[in-house]
Each structure stands twice: as structure tokens, then as C-alpha cells.
């Protein structure tokens, strides 16, 4: 859980900076990689490892699980986004 929260803290900061157009292209790529790593943590086994190649279905499953987690943890997500 700590790894997820650390990744999401970076991801939410990246999102805010991206929305303000304050990221370089290289920084946007790094933020996207952070997002991909966070999503993978919602999968099991080898799929959760960084660098694993996901199918479209696996990627969608990870995304949906992440979105459910955000809804279930809305107060925490809001604190992280405004931190």
C-alpha cells in the first residue's frame, strides 16, 4: 500500500502540473510511467511488475480497478490532490 500511495502522490502532483502546462515533454513521459506503475499495482502476479507488457484488456482492468479504488478512497485522493 505504501508503494501505491507514493506513486499516486507523484501522479497527482504531475496531473496538477500538466493541467497548468508546467511540464516538459520528458516530464510528461515520466509522469505517465508513474501512472502506469500505479495502475499495475491493481493487477496480480507478474502483471504488477514494472515493465510488464499489458494487453488492452489487462490495461483496462487495471484502469477500472484504480478508478474503483479512487472512488472508495475519495477523501484520501482529495487530500493527495490538494497537498
Please give a structural write-up.
- By secondary structure, this protein is mostly helical.
- It contains 4 helices and no strands.
- It has helices spanning 2-19, 25-40, 56-72, 74-82.
- Helix 1 runs antiparallel to helix 2.
- The protein is globular.
Write the SSE topology.
Layout: H1 2-19, H2 25-40, H3 56-72, H4 74-82
Helix pairs in contact: 1-2
Key traits:
83 residues; mainly alpha; globular
How large is the radius of gyration? 13 Å
The average pLDDT is 93
Structural class: mainly alpha
What is the end-to-end distance? 19 Å
Determine the number of helices (DSSP H or I, runs of at least 4 residues): 4
Give a quick rundown of the structure.
The protein is an all-alpha fold. Helices cover 72% and strands 0% of the residues.
